[in-house]
Amino acid sequence: MWEYTDKVREHFLNPRNVGEVENPDGVAEVGSIACGDALKLSFKLDENKRIKEAMFKTFGCASAIASSSALTEMIKGMTLEEAKKVTNQDIAAYLGGLPQEKMHCSVMGKEALEKAIENYQGAPAKEPGAQIICECFGVTDREIERAVRENNLATVEEVTNYTKAGGGCGNCHDAIRQIIERVRAEAKPVAPPKLTNIQKIKRIEEALEREIRPSLKHDGGDIELIDVVGNRVIVAVRGACAACKASDITLKHFVEAKLRDLVSPDLIIEEVAP
Amino acid sequence: MKTVYLDNNATTQVAPEVLEAMLPYFHDLYGNPSSMHSFGGQVAWKIREAREQVAALIGATPDEIIFTSCGTESDNAAIRSALATYPERRHIVTSRVEHPAVKSLCANLAGQGYRITELPVDKNGILDMEQFVGSLTPDTAAVSLMWANNETGVIFPVEKAAELARERGIPFHTDAVQSTGKIPINLQKSAIDMLSFSGHKLHAPKGIGVLYVRKGTRFSPFLIGGHQEKGRRGGTENTPSIVGLGKACELAARDMDAENTTVKRLRDRLESALLTRIPKCRVNGDIQQRLPNTTNISFEFVEGEGILLLMNEHGICASSGSACTSGSLQPSHVLRAMGVPFTMAHGSIRFSLSIYTTEEEIDFVIEKLPPIIERLRSMSPYWTSIAQACVSA
Q1: Contact across the interface for A58 and B342, Cβ inside 8 Å
Q2: 3-state class (DSSP) for residue A55
Q3: What SS3 class is residue B68?
Q4: Rounded to whole angstroms, how far apart are CA atoms B108 and B106?
């Protein structure tokens, strides 16, 4: 069973804004039955050019329905300029995160939003010169490039999770690999995705549990997360570590380095005041 | 909330009689059956009895039964043994709809230079016997065909296929994980050389499997170790589970008639009620050549994961061949091999019943499912256009 957050579950069980807006200003359809999910998004603007109404119809799994529902809630009240800035990560974050394999649901939401805005503004629906790379799921090079750039993807598997490209016959894996290399070579080091506080705490806990605690326990020590304030990670050392004179070296050189590596390079580790 | 468990092809509850038979072998009779003292020896005696019970269910003799850890181990042991028996042969015949225990193993062997023929099936999931015969060559080291399909319940004519393989001197293995205990099996009257099955599909616990190896079939062990199972499978016997499996096989033989009458009737009731009450749905797989407990139904224009999670809200357990539930992006390989259209494959749900399924549970599902499908369809962008097309046509 997928590990969905309560928020995903809640939006799936009680989806907001299901349907189609009457006389919409912008409308778009992305995905297809063959791909396993599809989303039709429509919106209407008020007199101040803010999104007054947004509605969706979705064929797809629980996370696709929840992502669509979240998207319509998020963009209500936004100007189109604001709405354009909504990323797939914002959608995932709104839902408290999505399983990696389901990130493509948030990407589908972002794509539908973009196309619906283009539909209103009269911009071309398809990016010119885009070339289909994954024939199974009809994903273009532009779409892959963008997913790689915006989400800092490094492997074919990640690209598949975010765009579905490569999830079928696998013939395009080499082509995807080349796109990843090209984009990553061009791009200056991309700022890592901004984490919400909850995401940050979750990731820190995960890193502690998986990477750090086992090593400390090996030497009879342990560590406990007390609080996260901005980039300050406040911890308490336990067991053998509490009595160990070298514990601040362990904290700086091992724990902090690991957390910076796995979560965010700006983290600073602090021991809780005794 | 009450659980309505219609996912018995995934796993089954341990029968109360089975659990009761097992319990003494955890704490009181924990001796090692290989020991020289009678404290252990009495356990060996009990294992002998279990071996007889297992053999009786499938028409084998006790010394043709090897206890393993699961169906997957049995499948691996059987196929690898056939390959070891004929090291000069480099070809394996199997089907496109096998369980991963066979399918992935064959894919792995393909990477080691074996040539694999994956036989196709027709739209009802039936094997083409002419193609099967045509695929057998002097280079064929093993045939492995499932007896019944886990997703659709469709039954392959493995007894006939085994005869055809024997005529050509090719070892024949069948993965009978889904059919054992559900339909009569008599290996004495068949040409099947090896057969795998698993305890947890027939009300024994997880972690116990069986590999049947016909007397006279050359066998090369998969797990090499002690002298257990006459040197054919090393490792201290899983005594509680072996005892439990023996009991489960005895019960399965007793309940075989009920499985093919009562359970079948409930399955048919569920199937026909859903087909009547819900528009645009259909059964996947041949409805004649099929296990009595399984139905696989596709609900067009909705996605299986959503159906499962909404049924879950009512405590109803089933499974789906949709892409979203598998973690891969493509729907079930079984449904794709049958050429089920994508619009149908994504919305496929498998219900698998057991001897413990009640009339009330079936009624409950018949009541709860139609509104679930309607609700998901009302959210689907495709449903409106189809519904409109139907109205205007």
Answers
A1: no
A2: strand
A3: strand
A4: 5
Report yes or no: B388 at the A interface, CB cutoff 8 Å.
Answer: no
- The 10s digit of each residue's pLDDT in B11-32 is 999 999 999 999 999 999 999 9
CA distance A150 to chain B (A): 22
- Tokens 């159906």 correspond to B307
In sequence order, the 6+-apart residues with CB closer than 8 A to the CB of B80 are B220, B222
Domain positions in chain B are 4-10+256-392, 16-252
Q: Which residue has the tokens 């023996």?
A: B246
Question: Three-class SS of residue B154?
Answer: strand
Angle at A110 between CA A107 and CA A116, to 5 degrees: 140
DSSP secondary-structure letter at B64? G
pLDDT score for A192: 59
- Chain A residues inside the 8 Å CB shell of B346: 33, 36
B212 phi and psi angles, rounded to 5 deg: -90, 130
Helix, strand or coil, per DSSP, at residue B118: strand
Query: Is residue B61 helix, strand or coil?
Result: coil
Q: How far apart are CA B135 and CA B141, in angstroms?
A: 12
R_g (Cα) of chain A, nearest Å: 22
Query: Which residue, among B184, B95, B150, B155, has the nearest Cα to B286 in the 3D structure?
Result: B155
Partners of B301 on chain A (C-beta within 8 Å) are: 33, 59
**CB burial class (10 A; 0-12, 13-18, 19+) of residue B177?**
buried
What is the 3-state composition of chain A as percent helix, strand, coil, each rounded to the nearest 5? 50, 20, 30
> Are the C-beta atoms of residues A95 and A11 closer than 8 Å to each other?
yes
**Are B209 and B53 contacting, i.e. CB atoms less than 8 angstroms apart?**
no
A95 to chain B, closest Cα gap in Å: 17
CATH number for B4-10+256-392 (one of 3.30.70.1560, 3.10.129.10, 3.90.1150.10, 3.40.50.300): it is 3.90.1150.10
Assembly ipTM: 0.86
Considering the domain B16-252, what is its CATH architecture? 3-Layer(aba) Sandwich (3.40)
- B93 has which bridge partners? B117, B143
Contacts of A109 in chain B (CB under 8 A): none
**Which residues, in sequence order, are bridge partners of residue B197?**
B210
Query: From the CB of residue B160, how many other CB atoms can be counted at a distance below 10 Å?
Result: 14
* Token pair belonging to B307: 């159906």
B229 DSSP assignment: G
- CA distances, A123 to each of A24, A42, A83, B107 (Å): 16, 16, 16, 47
- Domains of chain A by range and CATH? 6-121 (3.90.1010.10), 132-186 (1.10.10.1100), 197-271 (3.30.300.130)
Active site residue A105: yes
pLDDT digits (tens, 9 = 90+) for B227-284: 999 999 999 999 999 999 999 999 999 999 999 999 999 999 999 999 999 999 999 9
Residues of A with CB under 8 A from a CB of B: 2, 9, 12-13, 15, 18, 29, 33-40, 57-65, 101, 136-137, 160, 164, 167-168
